[in-house]
Design a protein that fits this description.
The structure is a homodimer.
Chain A: H1 2-36, H2 39-70, H3 74-107, H4 118-141, H5 144-168, H6 176-209
Helix pairs in contact in A: 1-2, 1-3, 1-4, 2-3, 3-6, 4-5, 4-6, 5-6
Chain lengths: 221, 221
């Protein structure tokens, strides 16, 4: 019975990993679609999102099932409870990638991001992609240092976002209101993907150590 | 033993209700602070947020404790698992109210929202406040119709947000890029408060019926 249970836990962990992989792909493709006005790729991200949602439901049901049937204690219980939270975070990260793809689609054939800011968004996209990858690897390793690294990467994301505000609010901004609105929201989406990565990592730390690392959300917005 | 357990469930429910009340106050005060450039009130919302976060930790710990000690089944298990999710949603709603208050504080003594859009934001703020109130009452009643009503209110919120975009992207916008950025993000914060309300309500429906109502997120952004 214990063996079957641990096989189920392994299955759930594998599904979480698969889900994180799908989210990572969505983040990467959404950024590419955004910066190249690639409509087909944007559509691909948008149409793939329901698969992420389905996987969320599946993992939630299986996790709930294990809680109900096995009435686990100690670390097994902790893992299952953390799974419920992590799966929610991943689903939101997928939604945010979809939001980025929707902006790309809405502005097609134009590129939503003004040319001067494209390197910054490329960097934010790459940072977000790497963070999701670390979240994925973190399930497997439950590596506390990886979680700390994610928090540092989140600071970098906040800096990038601040630099966008500085550009937009400078007198030289000539790209108009529409571009400013797009850029403000896109910046928010990437920042949130980073936040969710950190939040997931904090869950993993909690899983390992039984206590939470401190939060430091001091963003201006 | 069962009685002590159900007393604990009642305590957790009361704490959730208190937390929802604090979030509702935060949403109302943040809107007032925003539309009146009331810096003291904005500070109050910002400094109250850690109390919401503390309550989240407390409820999470108590819920986890009950899961570990009582190994509940069926509807008790469902309630505890839903609690873990709801408490996360409420915490986020509190953060979003804090974000609104931070914009109010950042633009003080100016009012961040241009005069023409203030009635729309007043309406969004009031809608968000009512939605949080329904979430709070919904824990107690577990009322499926309330959850459906929340979904209709969410559609109304999306309409209000769309109307803001129409105003901002019209040629007559003379309020500049900074105001547009503020308004775009503020609109997003209120929309997310509404989304979290619906998400919480969907959890409650799941709690009552054992199956999820369908989602219909077809926002442009």
């Amino acid at each position: 019975m214990r063996n079957a249970f641990h096989e189920q836990l392994d299955l759930i962990a594998a599904e979480l990993t698969a889900m994180a992989q799908m989210v990572q792909t969505a983040v990467q493709q959404a950024t590419t679609a955004l910066l190249n006005a690639d409509r087909a790729l944007a559509e691909q991200v948008i149409s793939a999102d329901p698969q992420i949602d389905q996987l969320q439901r599946l993992v939630e049901e299986q996790t709930f099932d294990q809680l109900a049937r096995q009435q686990p204690v100690a670390s097994d219980l902790r893992i299952l409870v953390a799974t419920l939270r992590i799966v929610t975070e991943l689903e939101r990260m997928g939604d945010l990638a979809e939001h980025v793809a929707k902006v790309a689609r809405m502005r097609y054939p134009d590129i939503a991001v003004p040319v001067d800011l494209r390197p910054t968004f490329a960097e934010m996209g790459e940072l977000a992609r790497r963070m999701v990858g670390m979240v994925r690897d973190n399930f497997v390793g439950r590596d506390v240092t990886a979680a700390e690294q994610l928090m540092e990467m989140d600071d970098k994301m906040d800096e990038l976002r601040s630099s966008i505000f500085r550009v937009m609010l400078a007198d030289e901004w000539t790209d108009g209101v529409e571009a400013a609105v797009d850029v403000a929201l896109l910046g928010r989406y990437y920042e949130r993907i980073a936040d969710h990565s950190v939040s997931t990592a904090r869950r993993v730390i909690y899983l390992v150590t039984g206590s939470y690392p401190e939060d430091d959300d001091d963003s201006r917005y």
